[in-house]
Amino acid sequence: MSGLELFIFAVLIPAVGVYFSLWKGKKPKNYIFLAISILLYYGALFNIKYLYLFSPRFNFIIAPIVYFYAFDLPGLAKFIRNRVAQIVLLLVIYVTLVFFIFLAMPGDYTTKFLDPKIMRNPEMYERIKKMFGVDDPWYVKYYKHMKNFFNLEMGISFSEYPKKVEEIIAERLPRTLFLFLASSVLSFLLGFDLGKRIAWKRGGLVDKAATFVGIVFWTIFTPFYMLIIIWLFGVTLKWFPLSGFITPSKWFDAPFSAQDVFLKLLWTELFLLVMWILGVAVASKLKTIKAKKTAIWSFVALGIVLAILYWATNKMGTYALDIVYHLALPVIALVTLHFAGDMLVMRDTMLEVIKEDYITTARAKGLPDKVIRDKHAARTALLPLMTSFVIGLASTVSGGVITETMFSWKGMGLTLLEATTSQDTPLAIGCLVFTGVLVLFAHLVADILYAFLDPRIRY
Q1: Residue 159: closest CA among 401, 408, 406, 426
Q2: How distant is the alpha carbon of residue 148 from its chain centre?
Q3: Rounded CA gap, 427 and 187, in Å?
């Protein structure tokens, strides 16, 4: 650490914290929490062994949380502080549970992945076991595991040696995100729009037919349904490839890897999502429904045009189309499965919302049905669906085991399954822990979204 960095981190940042506490602090707890947070901070900064738990990085996480507990924060800020503290605690509990689940699994992974010649040499085998800590007490293994986790050192995969776990996750994650982000957004939009329409005209033929179709897709056995999709579109009609995510023959002379194209496609997908969100934000400031729809579609159309221009000029367009071609069939399967649940949730919530007094008041004022449905009822009914969407989006990182297995899509779900069945403990733990972090973060995002979407909620 250079002299300037030492001054900034060891003097300037703590001085700002102390000044703020002295300026705002009028209670003894301010100074108590300040002292604890300073000890935690310096323990991590100077790597003082007895002043940090697990690792210095863990102290850097909890020190600001402890510091802000000294202040009476207003509303949403107080809620976020409390939720972040809960999430850190839940993260520790979750990582601990994952560790003990794998610790309780029978077998010794050294007997599976070591060379048989080494196994015949008792001395060499014992040295390897000692190096891996196989015979260490459980508490020693647990401390090492937590220390490595908070140091972001997930270990080396046994089944894909010598790749590091974080490298494998970085490779497989874009494939899963690309697949499930596209299907989740499409199913969300379809389910939201259809759900609010059939709920508003409940009891009609369209409502009954859509509800029946939704229940069928919601309750159907997923592997069986995906086999039907593969048989219909891949075998019989031959519209789409049966499995995989690229056509190997088209990539022999490619000047770049499929991973590079995946990453750029993922960024393109995120760009289109941001353009849609910007359109929704602009539309929220407009008054008429026609103007709102125009704003949203204008932003979406602009995003699509810019994306097409980008892929048409970067020499990767042909390869990207090959990936999208392989993506089509699993997306169709996922959208038809997930939209059913989103539609039913939206329909049931809308049926409850339209009974509220403020909907009756809006009708009494003579507002058009579309305005009441879209501006008043649908916004409130969106809350459970938004929560389901945000949390579901995070959980799909590991929840796509069935989909990725059926379509041989080498993403996080299939990686988790293969790591578990082959007793590749570091990789399996890495996949599970990474998913847990995303789900916990998604819960925080969903709670914050509630405050913005529902004016009745005040923290």
Answers
A1: 426
A2: 22
A3: 31
Q: Where are the domains of the chain?
A: 3-101, 107-150, 169-453
Strand pairing partners for 156? 164
- The model carries a pTM of 0.73
Encode pLDDT of 118-147 as tens digits.
Answer: 556 666 666 666 666 667 787 888 888 888
Q: What is the Cα–Cα distance from 125 to 119, expressed in whole angstroms? A: 6
Q: What is the DSSP letter of 134?
A: T
Q: ω before 162 within 30° of 0 (cis)?
A: yes
For tokens 């080396």, name the residue: 156
In three-state secondary structure terms, 343 is helix
Single-letter amino acid, residue 90: L
Q: What three-state secondary structure class fits 156?
A: strand
Q: 438 near 446, Cβ under 8 Å?
A: no
| Under 8 Å between Cβ of 453 and 376 | no
What does each C-alpha distance from 344 to 112, 262, 282, 333 come to in angstroms? 47, 33, 28, 18
Closest by CA to 408, choosing from 265, 182, 242, is: 242
Which amino acid would we find at residue 267? W
Cis peptide leading into residue 137 (ω within 30°): no
